[in-house]
Every structure is written in C-alpha cells, then in structure tokens.
Design brief:
The longest helix has 19 residues, at about 145-165. The protein has helices spanning about 40-45, 50-60, 60-65, 75-85, 100-110, 125-130, 145-165, and strands at about 1-5, 15-25, 30-35, 90-95, 120-125. A three-stranded antiparallel β-sheet has the order 1-2-3, sandwiched between helices. A two-stranded parallel sheet has the order 4-5. By secondary structure, it is of the alpha+beta class. The radius of gyration is 15 Å and the shape is globular. It has a single domain (about 1-165), classed as 2-Layer Sandwich (Nucleotidyltransferase, domain 5). GO terms for molecular function: nucleic acid binding. This is 3'-5' exoribonuclease.
Length: about 160
C-alpha cells in the first residue's frame, strides 16, 4: 500500500488535509483510496496547523488551495482507511517518517488503532534512490494525495518488477 498525505504541518500531530493511498504489487497499481478531511474535525481531535505550512499552501494555485476547504470527518476517514488497508502486507511512504508517523498521530488523536505494525513500514524515497530504480513520467497533479500516491506506486511497482526479473 502506497500512502501519501497532504498536511498543514511537517510533524506528527499536524492537520491532515487529504489522504491518498493505492494498493500495488509488481504487476501494477490496483485499488485506490482518496479522501479529504475537514479542518474542523482535525481541530476537534487536537491536531495543529503550522503557520509556515499554511502560508505555503496559500501561495499555491487555486486548484491546489481547494484542499483547504470541505472534507469528511477525521474519524470516518481513518475508519474507512483502516478497512481499505486491511490485508495489506506493507505500507510505503515518501518517507514513512513523514506519512506513516503523521497518520499514526492522527489515529492516536482519534483514539483509534493504527492498522499496521511499525515493521510493515517501507520507504519509497530510499527505493527510488537505489541504482536501477525506474523513473516514470509524472501524471496527475503535484500536491494531490491520490495523484502522488499513484505516481509513487507506479514507480515502485516498475522498480520491484525490474528487480524480480
């Protein structure tokens, strides 16, 4: 499972704007998951906004800034992601010290169990830096959690397939 978050901070405990994830293997991208999360529900859970990160978002294109509004309740999104994740063997992030830790902190804030074990975390940043890693042309929008997760999963899938030949 490849995970990508768009957030209003860089540390665990920050607001999550959107969560994108995609199941993948050496054969390619499978099912996807994409949800926006309401700022209000993040605030109610005690998640925080970093002023510098918010300022960065406000300097982006309007289509990127749209992520700052709307969204579903944090607890609902976390529950649905846990169901989507069920049965996955690994969770990949770019890097796990960002995506996995921030999402784990959100689960903690919502008093919900994290659906993976720490030893299932994998690092896409490390994989893409390895000799022989596949580089693919980017499709989709940058800073869209699902588009980022799909791109990362496509690259990871192609790289893992190359190495398993």
């Amino acid at each position: 499972m490849m995970l990508d978050l768009e957030t209003l901070g860089l540390d665990p405990g920050c607001v999550i704007l959107s969560l994108g994830a995609v199941a993948f293997d050496e054969e390619g991208v499978k099912e996807t998951f994409s949800r926006s999360i309401s700022l209000k529900s993040c605030d109610e859970a005690g998640l925080e906004i970093d002023a510098g990160t918010l300022e960065w978002w406000l300097g982006q294109d309007e289509n990127v800034q749209e992520q700052l509004t709307g969204g579903d309740e944090l607890t609902e999104v976390l529950h649905e992601f846990s169901e989507f994740y069920s049965g996955a063997e690994e969770i990949w992030g770019n890097s796990p010290s960002f995506d996995c830790e921030i999402l784990s902190a959100a689960y903690d804030a919502a008093n919900a169990p994290v659906p993976w074990e720490f030893y299932h975390e994998r690092c896409f940043r490390t994989l893409k830096a390895m000799p022989g890693a596949v580089d693919l042309e980017r499709e989709g929008d940058h800073h869209d959690a699902l588009d980022d997760a799909v791109h990362q999963a496509r690259r990871a899938s192609a790289t893992l397939a190359r190495w398993s030949e």
